[in-house]
Give the backbone structure.
Amino acid sequence: MDKKKQYIVFGVGRFGSALSKKLCEMGHEVLAVDSNQERVAQVSPYVTTAIQVAANDEETMRSLGIRNFDAAIVAIGDDFHHSVLITILCKEMGAKYIIAKASDANHAKVLLKLGVDRVVFPERDMGERIAHSLINPHVVDLINLKGDYLIAYLQCPKVWQGHTLLEINVRKKFGVSILALYRGDEVNMDITADTALKSGDNLLVLGHKHSIERVENLD
């Protein structure tokens, strides 16, 4: 397993609590912080430590040792003031890496101006994933990367089944790379030009969004 990391998560609503729990399930340490005692109590059994701290309690915030964590996650999207305040404090206290949740584009602009390393839109991103899966049944999941590049988890198109990657000429003809092949419970990441695709295969595919769309639209 990768080296155990330490994260501090501010705001344990639906997004923050789900993120905190998953990080702990993956073997990492999480300090969950929220101003609401009920939310703190709900997440406490699933994280390393959970504490109640008001966003404007600067003295207590400084005592958390934010600079010692691998990343600080500001998971507060519905309270602009508190989101900005905690982000500023994280920057002032030397946070190594800051991820912040934004509720809209303007919120994101402010967070980026404050020096946040990564802004996330959980609801929007999930909505886009569901939309893709509804429009095209080939798409099982989707991850957005920078520069309009995507990693898509797709059902193998029928026209590819029974052919090798060399025969399909995946990179040259479609402009995508096959990162992994999922067949039943097996995962094959050692893919070669001689790898043959079969019915029921799922593929992890990397490419520009237009290239991914071409593959999605194959029969």
Remarks:
- The chain has two domains: 6-120, 126-216.
- The chain has a mean pLDDT of 86.
